[in-house]
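Any chance you could type out a protein's amino acid sequence plus the matching backbone structure tokens because I've never seen that pairing?

——
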Amino acid sequence: MSSQEIYPWFKTVWSSIGIEQKDKFHHGIILSGVPGIGRQHFAEQLIESLLCIDNRGNGKACLQCRACELYAADANADYKTILLEEGKTQISVDQIRNSISWVNTSHQFNAKKVLFIPQANLMTVQASNSLLKTLEEPPADCVIILLVEHAESLLPTIRSRCRIVSLPVPERQQAKNWLVEQNIANELSLDLELLLDICNHAPLKVRDMLAGEEYQQRQKILKEILAVGMEADDPILVAKNLDKLDLQTVLFWFYALVMDLIRLKSRLRDDFITNKDYLQQLYQLNDSLNLILLYQLYGELNLYFRQKNRQLNQQLLLESLLIRWRNCVIVL
């Protein structure tokens, strides 16, 4: 896909944001959407269009002017992004202050300056308040773009001074059509319905999963964890086996499995199950699980999954979680 193509499920949103009228464009934009639908790509297209000095009639970047060329080379002085620093779990107030100083410098081109914060929900309270001052008194011809999964993760005062643009999850058939057009999963003879269930209806997540090794890793992770629950394998040995895999990937699928079992225990329909290809094994375990202990394990998995930037002893953590998982099984 070229940088000029808008994903089909975003076309209505793109046509409604008013990018073709830059002089009237809002100084603060919050892009909210779940991972795996192309939200980063949408943000990049918006940034590219704001920086362009020779836009087309629909507001899209020309890709040929000097501003576009420099942006493509990551060298446009009118663009700045604030990323999480290595080893840190939050965006600091100093990062925001330094960027605000940059915002107030002169332009390289006769277009917008753009400050992009792709993990805006990770700003500290002090950092958020520092950014708020700039949003209250925005410099001329500058746009601040915040990317988050949920707009509610930002301070209400920041939300009130920005335009919130909600990026939709594609409709089921639309996502399937796009995957077919990309020839994704066709050669592997995989079920697109199942893949979309596994990836929470996010087509780019499906693409990325199949492009790498995550699909095969998911099979291994779920089989190993289910074996522990069915008392067919030892938690310590399984922790050792899973220690070779990425911790976030293991925690994600462990979390998804426990969530499916909670749904079954709560008598929700099979439609709500993510891992439908393991439905038979889930039902086999269902009657022998303690719901209260499952909820406790669910909370612990959620906690560790969100601590992805912290240094953890992976094998010891997995041993602890798998032993707790084994203890969820009621001795009948």
